[in-house]
Amino acid sequence: DQQVKQNSPSLSVQEGRISILNCDYTNSMFDYFLWYKKYPAEGPTFLISISSIKDKNEDGRFTVFLNKSAKHLSLHIVPSQPGDSAVYFCAASKFRVSDKLIFGTGTRLQVFP
Amino acid sequence: DSGVTQTPKHLITATGQRVTLRCSPRSGDLSVYWYQQSLDQGLQFLIQYYNGEERAKGNILERFSAQQFPDLHSELNLSSLELGDSALYFCASSVAPGSGELFFGEGSRLTVL
């Protein structure tokens, strides 16, 4: 049972435009959400997170939106840069109960000039 | 560089064999996590240790075992290897359970022939 789903395996965006990566979850007990970025031959690196008490968190070019009623979150990258080309993983946890992260399958973002 | 060190980076072995993957967490981190990433899959949580004690268990096979030593490094032992065990194995660490962000190593790529 995939509790965290990223339905788009890949996304291609032109440099300077907005990239929107989506993530859906099924477990209403999740209360903390994170995005990780992964380059080839490297481990995932933390990008941005959001608690379930918020609906938006912004960090520079990266913004995460959380829609609890729809059990959906999205990562917006504006403007997109070629260096953003990587695989992005959405992750969730039941922060108050367990700190293990449940990951989605990832979305490969390609930003072209 | 996340500060998490994993060895070996690559390992090729035959079915039925046993291997040990090693992880040194970031300095000061007490919690260690092991994840498995098979081809085109997300990161599957295997097991977590905190200060030498097992804290949480995920979809870890009985053929697999792990431990965390007094110096906080951790080892993941995989035995009676099967072709399907071929994957990237990531170790991650955090300061303490519930701190949210995990810091990942570069992974150990296991190929079972």
Describe the structure.
The complex is a heterodimer of chains A (113) and B (113). With 113 residues, chain A is mainly beta. Helix content of chain A is 0%, strand content 53%. In chain A, the strands form two sheets. In chain A, strands 2, 4, 5, 9, 10 and 11 form a six-stranded mixed β-sheet that branches. With 113 residues, chain B is mainly beta. Chain B has strands spanning 5-7, 10-13, 19-24, 31-37, 43-50, 53-57, 64-68, 74-78, 87-94, 103-104, 108-112. Chain B has no helices and eleven strands. In chain B, strands 2, 4, 5, 6, 9, 10 and 11 form a seven-stranded mixed β-sheet that branches. Chain B is globular and about 35 Å long. The termini of chain B are far apart. Classes of the chains: A mainly beta (113), B mainly beta (113).
Short description:
The complex is a heterodimer of chains A (113) and B (113). Chain A has 113 residues and is mainly beta. Chain A is 0% helix and 53% strand.
